[in-house]
Give the backbone structure.
Amino acid sequence: MNCKILINGKWQQSSGGETFEVVNPANDTVIANVPSCNEQDVDLAAKAAYDAFPEWAQTEPKERASLMHAAAANIAAQLEPISILLTKEMGKPLGDARKEVKDAATTLDFFAQEALRIGGEIVPIGTSQATSLVVKEPVGVCGAIGPWNYPISLLAWKIGPALAAGCTVICKPPSDTPVAALEFLRCIEDAGFPPGVVNALTGSGARVGRAIVEHPLVRKVAFTGSGDAGKDIMARASKNLKRVSLELGGHSPLIVFADADFDRAVTDAVKRSFRNMGQICNAVNRIYVEKNIYEGFLERFVEITKTLTIGDGLENPDVDLGPMLNYQGIEKTIEHIEDAYSKGARILYGGHPPEGSQFKSKNYFTPTVLADTTSEMKVMTEETFGPVVGIAPFTDVEDAIRLANSTEFGLVSYAYTGSLSTSRALACGIKSGTVCINNVVGSTLEAPYSGWKSSGLGLELSRHAIDEYMQVKHIRIEV
Ligand code: NAD
């Protein structure tokens, strides 16, 4: 498959003609050649987006909404081929890929509705001689840069509010998994947006990503990815005071009290620890269990983990887990397991690749359960982004809150309890953008998703996300 980039309504090669290969992690075969863009491509895309902006910003909200609904319908119609590409390049089982593509279409539908509700206010200013209006206007050209673990849905989280607000966009899918995202963007373009409203460039973050961030015509950068890249983007964007929203790494705790629904807690804990091979920003990284149910929890957690099936998610769409994106992820997982073991953790399950001739690449790994982990171990403080979880006991609510807040991250936290007062204490005491009690639904389309502390800046999802793409203007009229 030979992919193309999108500039000013035309699918084309990069101006330098260079390409890079995308590999299927399940069997190490090359599935596509993708343009490796350069600064000239970024400049062309930025100019196209800049020229398209004034007219797009002036379109009636219902026209923007109707194009966005058409884009969502195109995506829904292409659900299967896009999902297959996503599984091929990223490794997630086909069922998970279908869910991601479907969610992306739903996200566009949601923000299409929100386009109709963007309003302002008339503020009382203490005089009848003047009227003060507060209106919102789109910020201009936006860069949308996404990570490889959810390459489609996390672009939709940015494109949706940007287009609804009246901004034009330059999208940069991740270089490890750009193929399905380009097909997703093709569905959007095919809905009939004016040329230049949606542009798509592929290539490395160091070259293409940075050039988007530094381009003077780009007024806002919406980014999801690693903390280091987020800080680099913020520093570069500050040179001409661009707006940034940053969704960065996490280190999610899950707390289980003795009064919780035990079966539900342990089943959800396994699911959220290992789904997508732990390659999720809000995967459960560490579990704290009330002391008196600790050993029983460990036993049941391991029993359920053993039932998870692993395999090529295209050959067998029903497997629970596919391969990791690449071997670097496995190396980091092994490093964290060895570090914990050397400091006294018990390895209750996993710690090695699965056995069998069906595993055609070295990117497979067995989900790994560590017990008696402490905050001196990397697995309890650094994002592994792999299939390993550390489990430790706690004594009371204060202890649980202290442990939950013991990392630099603050993205999503989970807890299971049957007590209303414990729920309230946790919800108020935990420092993260999302706190889920008795569930592991890390993000909800209608509610804001934001990282606290080192997990980010600004927010995505919900009606509030639109404000990230708008600037406020005060108009004082005296007659
Ligand atoms: P990454 O930071 O390496 O790359 C993310 C994207 O940014 C890619 O498209 C990359 O090409 C680009 N990029 C990299 N460096 C850049 C730079 N200096 N300037 C501009 N663009 C640059 O992250 P990744 O490895 O693709 O994704 C994994 C990370 O993303 C993890 O830390 C994970 O927690 C985080 N993540 C966060 C969320 C969230 O919502 N908070 C969701 C998913 C993933």
The pocket of nicotinamide-adenine-dinucleotide is lined by residues 145-150, 154, 172, 174-175, 204-206, 209-210, 213, 224-226, 229, 232-233, 247-250, 281, 383, 385, 411, 451, 456 (CB under 6 Å). The longest strand covers residues 130-138. The domain at 5-248+455-478 is CATH 3.40.605.10 (Aldehyde Dehydrogenase; Chain A, domain 1).
